[in-house]
Amino acid sequence: MAGEKLGFAKNFEDLLVFKRAYKTSLEIHRTTLTFPAAEQRGLGEQMRRASKSICANLAEEFGKGSDSAEMRRFTRIGLGSSEEMRVWLRYCLDLRLINKTEWQMWRDEYHAISQMLQKLIGAIKAPAKK
């Protein structure tokens, strides 16, 4: 099982980074539903998808009981989605869909989530070279 391989989590729900990303994803989801209709379908859909991708990739990594290389790959995909969210948030600020306080809060949150994912990637043992 993936959690046993990492030595600190038995399932994805035990990971602090999952809990943090999930909570933030719910906030993002709710907020994007208040956007104008065109942005709910465009930018809002992209943000909902990217924010949920972080959580889904962590869950998939654990659910498959993946080997180290596969675990690193799924975590890197989640990391990419976390960084992507920082871009979408900047668009939201510049388009005046969110205020500066919200932007700073979520920008900082996704920066912290990215750092946590980077540490998780580092904690996953690289596959032994043959």
Describe it for me?
The chain has one domain: de novo design (two linked rop proteins). The chain has helices at residues 2-6, 16-32, 37-64, 68-94, 100-123. The model is unreliable at 1-5 (pLDDT under 50). 78% of the residues lie in helices and 0% in strands. By secondary structure, the chain is an all-alpha fold.
Task: Kindly list the characteristics that best describe this protein.
130 residues; mainly alpha; de novo design (two linked rop proteins); disordered N terminus
Approximate helicity band: over 70%
Strand element count: 0
Nearest-integer average pLDDT: 88
Number of helices: 5
Query: How would you describe the shape?
Result: elongated
Strand content: under 5%
Q: Over the alpha carbons, how many angstroms does the gyration radius reach?
A: 16 Å
Span from first to last CA?
A: 23 Å
Number of domains: 1
- The computed structural class is mainly alpha
CATH class division: Mainly Alpha
Catalogue the unreliable spans. 1-5
Major sheet summary line: none
Helix/strand order, N-terminal first: HHHHH
CATH topology: de novo design (two linked rop proteins)
CATH superfamily name?
Answer: 23S rRNA-intervening sequence
CATH architecture field = Up-down Bundle
